[in-house]
Amino acid sequence: MRYDLSIIASWIEPGSTVLDLGCGSGDLLHILSVDKGVRGTGIEREEGKVSQGIEKGLSVLHGDINEEVADYPDGHFDYVILSQTLQQVYEPARLIREMLRVGKRGIVSFPNFAYYRIRGQLLFRGRAPVSRELPYEWYDTPNIRVITIRDFRRFCRKEGFAIEGETAVSTPHHHEKGAVVTFLPNLLATYGMFLLSRRGA
Amino acid sequence: MSEYIEHSPSGTSVGRVEKRFLTVAEADRPLTVESGRALGPVVLAYETYGQLSERADNAVLVLHALTGDSHAAGYYEPGDSKPGWWDLMIGPGKPIDTDRYYVICSNVVGGCMGSTGPSSTDPATGKPYGLTFPVITVGDMVQAQKRLVEHLGVSKLLSVVGGSMGGMQALEWSVRYPDMVRTAVPLATTTKHSALAIAFNEVARQAIMADPNWNGGNYYDGVPPAHGLAVGRMIGHITYLSDEAMRQKFDRRLQDRCENSFVLEEPDFQVESYLRYQGQKFVDRFDANSFLYITKAADYFNLEASHGCGSAVAAFAKAQCRYLVASFSSDWLYPTYQSRAMVQAMKKNGLDVSFVELEAKWGHDAFLLPNARLSGMIARFLDRALVDAAKEDARAL
Q: In terms of C-beta density within 10 A (0-12 exposed, 13-18 middle, 19 or more buried), how is residue B76 classed?
């Protein structure tokens, strides 16, 4: 299992209900359902991945995460996951608020743009960074924003999202091996992962 | 229902099958239809494939579209030119696997493929009903099927599966008899016809009624309104295709000629010839009055109005099953927005639903064509339903 996904999985209680926004072909939900008896639903934009997810026995909806998340009743899921998609979201505050409306908790992970190698590319080469985690040139990237771990914490404070848990990891892109980074995470971690809830909830 | 009936690329044929009949309503135990009349006797033609399990938890009800019938799979005689209409989906090793599931398919009430309809004899007069047959609805089709399903010893269906008007019946089943439905698979369908869909049906009906042979529906001892019915079917076929499908299939190609004939009655274009052929073929197997009744039933269908006082969310509040909804990108008869609307209403009720819009250029007909993704999803969806059913039974013990 991908290292970053194994961290997310470790946060999820057995037998809970999970909504995975941008679930791809449903790998995480499948593992959660097999290992933890989770009842999962995924939302995915690509038809081929949607059908692969359904063929894994999952419930998957074909559509846009911003629109599809809106229809569920309040508190319908125990967890709503947004894994490595935040950098492509047009209105992050609105989406995370919706996540925390339909879910009791939200899990958000993203590639850390303050990772030292990314800083180095800008500092020493003077070019827009291209890394394994963010492998696109400036002219072909689907990503519309860059996020650092420190910025995300600040954003949560400002928007009133309570951070219940936080893990920074160093792992190659989509790799099974990795390590938790506790020393200077904003400099040394490739990914930031946050467990959120509504303030006061 | 389309002309694209083919053998499945996977699995084997269910083999020789038999059409059977069940009287689901008698004069003293009639079917009270939505339009208010009591109908009896009512016979349903049906077929079953596979074996009902001991716990009776593996029954899948397959629901046919507008002009379909109970013959969903297999063949009647070894020399049959075509198998049942969904043979690619139903059979041993196929997505609706008859080695695992007990498959039931019945012809709808109002039809002309063995079930009671306007061409049946009215016991009161000894003559065909014709237009004295009561107007029926999708709800009436489903309440008749319920009697059949119960007679077969099934109190809870593992799944109700159907496309187009079959999908309407699947949706109707899921909200009318929620205790009897574990999962539902409505394909290429809608909770209510758009004005566009009603318009096409109305033109088709007018074509029949304008045929002098129709004679107010009394033609059973004379010449049937073949031309009107053929035109009605031609209109249907246009709606089942798409602009792209027609371009690929026919474009402006001429049929058996190199130049325009300059004769008005001649079918110059391949598309003309195709539609005429489809119309002719249909006349041989379908009753014009049944076509009027069934298209009207499809037009009347409005799940929101009949189960939710106009609200789709209120209608699906009655449902309890898990859904797999699929639409097709080029279907302009039941466009994707209609499937999305029903999915939205299901979600608002917290129902467990999967939805996919399948990329397909063949228009509405796509649900009957080979599609590996659709097959894979249906197979796995039913498989999970059976596993869940077994778990539930184990918990109940």
A: middle
